[in-house]
Specification:
The structure holds two protein chains of two kinds.
Chain A lengths: L1 H16 L2 H14 L7 E2 L2 E2 L2 H20 L5 H14 L8 H12 L13 H29 L11 H17 L7 H9 L2 H24 L1 H7 L7 H20 L3 H17 L8 H28 L16 H15 L5 H14 L5 H30 L9 H19 L7
Chain B lengths: L3 H20 L3 H26 L2 H32 L7
Classes of the chains: A mainly alpha, B mainly alpha.
């Protein structure tokens, strides 16, 4: 872990000291290299296969933003790099306090990113206020939890009333962070109106970090309480997660704007991943973590299709037709959309399957989980209509684009990764 | 034994703070509510530390202070921008 930490620090330093274009390449290379050495431990930060998977889930989408954001300025590059370095500490955390601090370091300061390109203070305000609300709930929940459990350890959980209230408050904070219904409005605004590379970053890297935090939380205190029969703790979050899938699907079907469709898709996926909370660990934790990995790669490719065809500006469905002139780009985009729908042979299918298995074989009553599973599946299938609009738009003939080797190579690699993950899914726990 | 009295004292603080963050539209009031929530969290952590002699609670209290300060810094930056551009600290203004 020491080499990993050193590489993360170097990537931040290079973004600060070098000229932005060179720094973006060097920072990306260092960030990509860092998880490869994530073994051993430093304090409460621990390496291993789960940590490596988590680090790649947050770093792979971030690379697309760092390399290809259009107005290369030093401050945005520094912010992107430092946020990514913080986000990669989330999956390495093996202690509630460190987990929540690293998550807050990412999500609260990410508000500053929304100011990039459009200089729209309204978006920054929306993001900041919801982050602050979630952070306040999270800290108070953690304090109440600590007063009952007397430990931040993931494994030593004392069951008291304070522990139960603390866990419920932290779950409420996760609901806001993941933009689950009814706290989903901020995500639609922020993902559809901020610059494309920022929307890519916030909806992939920051969300993957939040999902990994939820996965570790499900492995620790929540899992311990579920194992002791307190399934009522997750009843309301599960209903809200199902409602989120419904809201996401309806939003995708009823909207014609590309970025709004992707924003609602992101919301629906958060809901589907949260359904795995019904099961005690290790299934819940592993299912959420794999969902985060599959989702973050596919979602970043989908947003990158938009960034590639139109840059940071709003991109209409018709403008997506430009992708057709570059076979690697259209392959990556179509694979990503197929993965987001959940069709084999892509990782999105496995992710949805594990989530449903965790829901159906969890600790909640069978009738309750069956109804939720049916509703979530039906509305996910309905959401395929929204994705179909993107698929048809990307395969229409349009203006031709100049060949660029690096973006096309990266997109092709990510798309192949989604296919490989279908055949070899990673079910890992902290 | 649980921290009954301490939690009963901090709960109203937390409820007022949550209401302030969720329902207020003035950025200074939001910042004040955030501070209230930080105080509520730190009070609980301090009580746990002194009751059971667990220094981790004090460490956590310090870290919450740092995190809340970062959040306040972002909100102060937004407030300064709003005051310069719109001459108002009201979010809707």
């Amino acid at each position: 872990m020491i080499v990993t930490a050193a590489l993360l620090v170097l990537s931040v330093l290079s973004s600060l000291l070098l000229e932005p274009r060179r720094a973006s390449y060097l920072s990306s290379a260092l960030l990509l290299l860092a998880p490869a050495f994530a073994y051993g431990s430093i304090g409460s930060l621990s390496g291993g296969p789960y940590t490596i998977m988590g680090m790649y889930a947050v770093i792979l989408p971030a690379i697309l933003s760092i390399l290809f954001f259009k107005e290369k300025d030093k401050f945005t590059l520094f912010l992107l790099t430092v946020l990514t370095a913080s986000a990669s500490l989330v999956p390495a955390s093996r202690n509630l306090l460190i987990l929540i601090m690293s998550l807050e370091a990412v999500s609260v300061t990410a508000a500053a990113l929304t100011f990039y390109h459009y200089k729209n203070m309204r978006l920054t305000l929306i993001y900041a206020i919801f982050s602050v609300l979630a952070a306040a709930l999270m800290f108070f929940g953690l304090a109440i939890y600590y007063s009952g459990s007397l430990s931040f350890s993931l494994t030593k959980v004392r069951v008291t009333l304070s522990t139960l209230i603390g866990v419920e408050l932290m779950l409420a904070a996760f609901i806001i962070k993941l933009a689950l219904f009814p706290a989903h409005f901020w995500a639609v605004d922020v993902y559809s109106r901020s610059a494309t590379s920022v929307a890519l970053y916030l909806s992939s890297t920051v969300k993957a970090a939040a999902l990994f935090a939820l996965s570790i939380f499900a492995f620790g205190p929540l899992g311990a309480l579920l194992n002791q029969g307190y399934w009522e703790l997750v009843a309301v979050p599960l209903v809200l997660a199902t409602a989120t899938v419904i809201v996401g699907a309806v939003g995708m079907i009823s909207n014609e704007e590309l970025r709004k469709i992707l924003a609602y898709s992101s919301i629906a996926h958060s809901g589907f991943a949260a359904l795995a909370l019904a099961s005690p660990p290790p299934l819940s934790s592993a299912a959420i973590a794999f969902y985060a990995l599959a989702y973050s790669i596919a979602n970043s490719l989908a947003f990158y299709g938009c960034l590639y065809s139109k840059g940071e500006e709003e991109c209409s469905l018709n403008e997506l037709a430009a992708l057709r002139s570059r076979p690697a780009m259209v392959f990556g985009f179509v694979t990503a959309i197929i993965s987001l729908i959940g069709i084999p042979p892509t990782a999105g299918f496995d992710a949805k399957l594990f989530s449903l298995i965790a829901l159906l074989f969890g600790k909640v009553p069978v009738a309750f989980s069956t109804v939720l599973a049916i509703i979530a599946t039906v509305f996910t299938a309905a959401a395929a209509y929204g994705y179909a609009k993107l698929l048809f738009a990307s395969t229409k003939p349009g203006r031709s684009m100049v060949r660029e080797l690096l973006p096309e190579a990266i997109v092709a690699v990510y798309a192949f990764l989604l296919i490989i993950l279908f055949f070899k899914p990673l079910l890992l726990t902290p | 034994m649980e921290l009954g009295a301490t939690i009963w004292i901090t709960l109203p603080l937390a409820v007022i703070a949550l209401y302030g963050i969720a329902a207020r539209r003035n950025i200074v009031r939001i910042m004040m509510s955030l501070e209230l929530m930080a105080i509520a969290s730190i009070t609980v952590m301090g009580a746990v530390s002194s009751s059971w002699w667990r220094p981790k609670g004090e460490v956590m209290g310090m870290m919450v202070l740092v995190a809340i300060s970062v959040e306040s810094a972002i909100l102060i930056a937004i407030a300064t921008y709003l005051a310069l551009k719109k001459e108002s600290l009201d979010i809707r203004g």
